Amino acid sequence: MALTLNLQKSQASLQLCLQKAGVTKPPVVDMAFLLDVSGSFEDEHREGITNDLLTRLVPWGLTFDPDKKLDVITFSHTAASVFEVGAVKADNYQGYIGREIVAKVPGWCGGTDYSYALEQALRGFGWLKGAEPGLLGKLFGRKAEVKEKKRSLVVMVTDGENNDHARTRQVLRDSQQRGDEVYFLFLGISNQPGQFGFLEAIGDEFDNTGFLAVTNLRRFVAQSDDELNQSLLLPELLTWLKR
């Protein structure tokens, strides 16, 4: 049975949790939800478990995002798999992944690369320039698209290690060196201990990157609002939200 929330109650719970942690006024932060659609994650998507996780983050979008939404981006391997699915809001979160993603997005049931999806999120929030114009664009004097820079929180959900360690590190290193106002929160979904050594390493390496291992996703999404928020509000993330 699909999870539904009393969004007003869940949002109030998040705001209280933030206040207790010293974030007296939630900052304005655009939000993105990056979802791994590799083959090993298929069952969780089809069974609606990842949609329950997305549901639990809707109150975060309502609290932080100026447009009260989460921008959903799917990915598997290579740049061609990265796809901007759309915005999740209070009125469309129920069944969203089954309706909009399962067996429909590019790269469905592929492998796993992180870097290209991270770059897409950075472009969407204005921290990276858009794609360079093609030959015709250059002939007509068109320039690469430049978007307004927006402070942003990117939640990336994956069930396995990636194949592009060096490139992912470079994307995160460049972002940190530019001083992008972005925080990357990686959620690793697996019941296998030690599955996410790379994510643990980059969580320690970069100031704007955090990692949380989720060993039982069904149990995780079934937590109370307070329990779930306390799990997600890592100390480093709280420090970033207070800036």
From TrEMBL:
CDD domains: vWFA. InterPro entries: vWA_TerF_C, VWF_A, vWFA_dom_sf. Coiled coil: none annotated. PROSITE patterns: VWFA. Residues 30-237 form the VWFA domain. Gene3D superfamilies: von Willebrand factor, type A domain. It holds the Pfam family vWA-TerF-like. This is VWFA domain-containing protein. It comes from Ideonella azotifigens.
